[in-house]
Structure formats: C-alpha cells, structure tokens
Amino acid sequence: MKINYQDKLLRIIGYPVLGFIVRHFGEYESVGSLMKQPLYYGDLAWNTLLVALSWEANRRLIVYLDQHYSWVNQRFQRFVIQASTSFVITVPLVASMIYLWNEILIKRPGNFETGYLLVYDFPLTIVFTVLVHMIYTGMYFHQYYSQTIERLENRVRELETSVAGVKSSSDLIKPSGYRDLLIVNYGTASVPVQTNDIAFIHKQNEISFIKTFDGKEYTSSSSLENLEDLLDPIAFFRINRQMLSNVKAIRQFKADTAGKLVLEIQPSFHEEVTVSKRKAVEFKAWIGKKI
Predict the structure, then answer these.
(1) 171 lies in a domain?
(2) What is the pLDDT of residues 188-201, one digit of tens each?
(3) Per-residue DSSP letters for 18-76?
C-alpha cells in the first residue's frame, strides 16, 4: 500500500513555528528586546533553515522506510531502524548547522560549547525529532486504515451488487424452482453452463460427465439423482441408471426384440443408449404422443 503524505501546508507552517521555538528555547531576553537586535532576525532565519533541513531529512527517511518496512507487519523492525537512523541523521546535522552559524558565519564564539549543546540543543533535537516522527506515524496509520476501510467498503458494494444481480436474474432459478444454470467443473476451473445447452449427463466411476450440444464436456461431483432434482423434468428424462438426457438431444428411438427402446442421440455417445422395457411407457409419455 502506497502512503502519500499530504503535508505541504504542515511544513509551510511548521518550519517557521519550530524555527521560532528553537531560537527562543533557553532564551532569557524578552521578544521585544530581541526584536531590536538585527542579529535576532538572522538567528530566526537560520533556525528556520535548520528545522527545514532536519525535517526534510527525516521525511525522506520515513518515505524510504515506508517502501521497505511496514508499520503494520514489521512494527518492531521499523521502530528500531527508524529511531536509530533518525538520530544518526539529525544530531550531526543540527550540530554542524549550529557550529557553522555561530562560529563561522557570524563569529559568535562561546555558543558552540559542549555544555550548552547537552543542556539545550541536544534535548531540543530529541524532542523535535520525536515530534516529527510521531506526526508522520499518525498520518501513516490514518491513511493506511482509511485506505483499508475504503477498499473493504468497495468490496462490500461489489458483493451487494453481485447478490442483487443474482436475486433479480432468471439465469439461476426458474419460477418453477428448477435450475437454468449449473456451476460445473472444466479442468481445475468452475464454470457456469446453461441447462438448455446440456445434451445429456452420464455417470462413470461416480463422476457425472456433462455433455453440451457444442461437444464440450464438463464434470460434476454431484450424483445423477441430485442433478435430476435440479433439472426441469419437462426438458430432461432419466433414460437409465447412467444417463439423463435432454429431449432436444434425442434424434430417434425404436423398440428392439426385447421391448427396450434404443435411442439415437446427438452428440453421439460411445455406447448404446437404451430405455428399459419397464420405463418405455413413461419415456414415450414424456417425449410426446406419436401423431
């Protein structure tokens, strides 16, 4: 998940505000008194630049870590790497900026002292760094969970639309209660097949093979008995123990010497298809009266 920090306004406001705080941290003179000193405005500008550079360095670190370590799945790793790296980046940067301004640019000796750094600048650097990282961590989780919720809501809407479509469609169940559509197997995939496209279904080794008029063959783990209950008896007839046939698949039939009916079906079947003498009358009544 890509996190985009919408923080432009935050940085525009944050740089001068934190620059002002950094300049006045540990300062005993009043603001009014300081404003009379020209160097005060240079201090403000430099501290604002210091804040901007430190903030930007930490922001780039955060964006980089977002791409490699997730706060959700790698929380401990992310915390250790981010905490240690941020101080390794920030402390030398702040120290070098303070030294450059005070000792080289304005030549204000005595301000870059170890004691002053330890008492004022180093604690302030820690507070500043922690604050920036807390802000971005909060933004990370807010955006992560907002995107997650939005994605789940979209999925729910898709499912609701799908269910509504199924409920309003006549493709699955006829008003009579019989199926117009079966979900069957085609290799490792599950595919829908219209029942009026099915020529016949035959059983072999406890597997039901569904043959369609276009010559395709599918399979189902349902028994012939279960499939017979799903199919409209006006269109399908249980020819024998091994086969259900669509009325449109039967091209002709004739009685043999034993009284059985021998059927010719299309698509053709690799074995002789017969209706027992006992079921012959029922079959003739189902397929229609001879005229």
Answers:
(1) no
(2) 888 999 999 999 99
(3) HHHHHHHTT--S-HHHHTT-HHHHHHHHHHHHHHHHHHHHHHHHHHHHHTT--TTTSHH
